[in-house]
Design a protein that fits this description.
CATH class of the largest domain: Alpha Beta
Shape: globular
CATH architecture of the largest domain: 3-Layer(aba) Sandwich
Helix content: 40-55%
Number of helices: 10
Number of domains: 2
Number of strands: 10
Order of helices and strands: EEEHEEHEHHHEHEHEEHHH
Structural class: alpha/beta
Length: 253
């Protein structure tokens, strides 16, 4: 459902993404992990169509993003880590605005909006201004808006930021149901526990390149670890976080 081939992004002297290639299958949750500065957010923005690649190709549900950007974006729902909302609109009005951008007709919108607001436990707040929502409620509203047009692909950057445990569990269950309905979900996250619990496969990006890819078990085997995903992640990426911490403790000890 998502095919990325030799994707590269350069910012002047900085090579943020370097020849990245990967595939996300229909009905799969694909986790995208990496240290800070590894190229995760840059990749997410290119898939979502908000940042143009230097080179390479992105195909979404058979649509070439460069050649048919409108067609590709019509089948994608994008959930950024920092949601932008029109806070002087009510939650319902914001969904209506987003539905208009995707060409959802009024009758289909009413049915879909009612269903999503109920699903994300926002029905009682539907006519309240977004500015009165908590951060977690805003995050759930932006997720609702990303699903208003029934996308085939969902691209998510840090889905659980600002959500309480109940909200995080709700979103995890929704993602699993979407997967059963054939939706492909590309999730970038720093939370290794979420990736291990939720994702069918995981790709680890490091210095802009895909360092390793597979199930949690595959990654643990590659790293020679049999315990937690965190151990495999640190070993595959060189364990720099542990080295920095050790140096800090030596200097301040």
């Amino acid at each position: 459902m998502i095919e990325i081939e030799n994707l590269t992004k350069r910012f002047k002297q900085v090579l943020a993404v370097d020849g990245l290639s990967l595939t996300v299958r229909p009905g799969e949750i694909y986790g995208f992990l990496g240290p800070n500065g590894a190229g995760k957010t840059t990749t997410i923005k290119m898939i979502a169509g908000t940042l143009r690649p230097t080179s390479g190709r992105i195909t979404i549900a058979g649509r070439n993003l460069a050649k048919d950007p409108e067609g590709a974006k019509q089948v994608v729902g994008f959930i950024p880590d920092r949601p932008f909302l029109y806070e002087k609109l009510s939650g319902y009005e914001f969904l209506q605005f987003m539905a208009g951008l995707y060409g959802v007709n009024s009758r289909a919108f009413r049915t879909r909006a009612d269903s999503l607001l109920e699903l994300f436990e926002l029905s009682e707040w539907r006519h309240e201004l977004v500015e009165s929502y908590s951060h977690g409620m805003k995050q759930r509203l932006i997720m609702s808006s990303a699903l208003i047009h029934r996308p085939q692909v969902l691209v998510v950057d840090e889905p659980m930021v600002g959500l309480d445990p109940r909200g995080a569990r709700l979103v995890s269950n929704i993602f699993r149901q979407l997967r059963l309905n054939g939706v492909s979900i590309f999730v970038s996250t720093h939370t290794l526990g979420i990736a291990a619990e939720l994702c069918d496969r995981i790709g680890i990006i490091f210095h802009g390149r895909l360092l390793a890819e597979g199930t949690v078990g595959d990654l643990q085997t590659m790293a020679g670890e049999s315990s937690q995903l965190e151990d495999a992640f640190l070993k595959l990426t060189g364990g720099h976080e542990e080295q920095v911490l050790a140096e800090f403790l030596r200097e301040t000890g």
